[in-house]
Write a structure and sequence with these properties.
CATH superfamily of the largest domain: Periplasmic binding protein-like II
CATH architecture of the largest domain: 3-Layer(aba) Sandwich
Distance between the termini: 43 Å
Number of domains: 2
Number of helices: 14
Strand content: 5-15%
CATH class of the largest domain: Alpha Beta
CATH topology of the largest domain: D-Maltodextrin-Binding Protein, domain 2
Number of strands: 14
Low-confidence stretches: 1-24
Largest sheet: 6 strands, mixed
Oligomer: single chain
Structural class: alpha/beta
Shape: globular
Order of helices and strands: HHEHEHEHEHEEEHEHHEHEHEEEHHEH
Mean pLDDT: 89
Radius of gyration: 21 Å
Amino acid sequence: MKSSKYWVAAIAVGTFLTQGVGFALSADKDWKDLIAAAQKEGKVVVFGPAHQEVRRVLPVAFEKRFGVKMEYIGGRGSAAAAKLAKERAAGLYTADAALAGIQTLARRFYAGGMLDPVKPLLLPEITDGSKWKKGEPWFIDPEKKYALRLFSYVAELITINTKFVKPEDYKTAKDLLLNPKFKGKIVAHDPRRSGTGSNKAAQLYLTYGEAFLKQFYVDQKPRISRRERQITDWLLRGTYPIIMGGDFAEIEKMRKEGLPVKSVFELSDLPASLSGGNGNLVVFNKNPHPAATKLLVNWIASKEGLEVYARASGRAVTRNDIDEASFLPAQRIPKPGTKYFDTYDWEFSVKTKRKVRGIARKLLKK
């Protein structure tokens, strides 16, 4: 039996899709023909984040809208890449698309020659530059056609339990992270792996240098973890009152309910940074459901599909026609004209983060 929480999510999606927020699919021949072809294929296979709300909501919304099943495989990007590489070596092509973090898509999907261009699949309605904050769909790969960035949000630097961490404790990131008072009481997302951990470590490296990484990751004895839900739970319980990398949407929900938690987005020595999370859309070559894949690509890049995804994951988007303020705190939404450190810059992701992961492995001797 499906849980009541699942059905609440399904009802919410149904309400959202019937409130007229989508585009006029039924009136457009391109969409009608595409939907009919996708329905004949029956399904689309998508790799995406393990995020619980996304896993519940996104497949329900897609199937409700089009009558096409979304087989959603959630998990770590590195595990998905390894699985696909093994299948492809055996001549099996089972996946159609992925919603991926930049490091997995750059280092594994893109470098491994697994991708087809997304750009040629986009319908004119989607490529309309007036609907995008950059004046066009934002492709982040060197050829500007393989990886469509859907999310760009201000990432929290750290998150604290205010019952244990007071305002005088964090005037600067350096003072907070190296404070002897918090030795052994900080959780850091694993800096040796692709994702949040190396994003944070690379920013610290560029700001303070390699010596700081040793002072923090070795001398301060932080707890290293890759389990986002566990990291979040430790924060809420006060087991570890400072974390770097948790489930922001869950933390924000807890904050609104009155729990003593706070996300810090900027400090005097660390500027606010942008991230894309698992908001990069890619399409695999030799995909088994080409029509359903094209339908998915255009839906998830549309106002309707992207709003479903953004609300479920708690992320700001690269389109300009979605009311982000209706479901995000103001600090999460990039301000026009403000300079941010973009942790999803391609060169930074491919080169600097790789270097920092190597440093972290040496420091942590693993």
